[in-house]
Amino acid sequence: MNDRAIAGEFATETFDYDGGRQVTVYVPPDPPEAVVFAGDGQGISQWGQFLEAADVPSTMIVGVHGLTDEMLRLQEYSPVFDAERFAAHERFFVEDVGRWARSRFGVALPTERTAVFGVSAGGELALALGLRHPNVYGAIFCASPGGGYKPTEVMPSRIPRTYLVAGTQEPFFLENATRWADALHDAGADVVMKERAGSHGGAFWRKEFPLMVAWAFGRE
User: Distances in Å between the alpha carbon of 83 and those of 86, 117, 184, 186?
Assistant: First the structure.
């Protein structure tokens, strides 16, 4: 799969946010039937090749680049560390990037064809944004979430469909994913939880991505 030539294209834009933040978009070769907004977009935007190799609906990836400074990245991605910094990044991600993507690429897809995705600390971001903006994101894709952001006793009344995955060789992250799956299930949400062989940052993240897209947007 890694050797397959990619048919889609990439576009990168630099925004004024936080002194200059890039967003890289994977534009599929066919008109997009779905869109995934992702944190750590400098890497995840490249996963379009895995979608092209799978039998899934044509899906655009809007990848908001993450910070290399891990502490600042955690503050942006989880609402529990620095509420002000998280809120600023939330506005940028949801409002500014969303508005730009709709204008730049003519993507006007409904909520049920829109997902938010993240891995590790980015998984916390996906959960937080999905739960806070169910009118924007109809699905949450979350791989190996970190442990800072935890389920609350009272969950939102409206919860996007959620697909979680974690590896057998990353017990801390597997526990976090399972905790979220149980809490969302108890709140009545449509939840999938997959346990895969693998360690943190392993290839199972990339392999799971097309399965997430197929589950949320159409073809099994």
Answer: 5, 20, 23, 27
Q: Which amino acid is at 54?
A: A
Q: For 177-214, how does the pLDDT look when each residue is reduced to its tens digit (9 = 90+)?
A: 999 999 999 999 999 999 999 999 989 999 999 999 99
The span from the CA of 74 to the CA of 60, in Å, is: 25
CA distance 205 to 92: 25
CA distance 136 to 105: 17
List, in sequence order, every residue forming a beta bridge with 191; answer none if it has no partner.
Answer: 162
Q: In what order do the strands lie in the sheet with 161-167?
A: 9-15, 21-27, 59-64, 34-38, 114-119, 139-143, 161-167, 191-196
Helices (H), the chain: 41-44, 48-52, 70-77, 83-91, 98-105, 121-132, 171-186, 204-217
Q: What is the pLDDT of residues 37-91, one digit of tens each?
A: 999 999 999 999 999 999 899 999 999 999 999 999 999 999 999 999 999 999 9
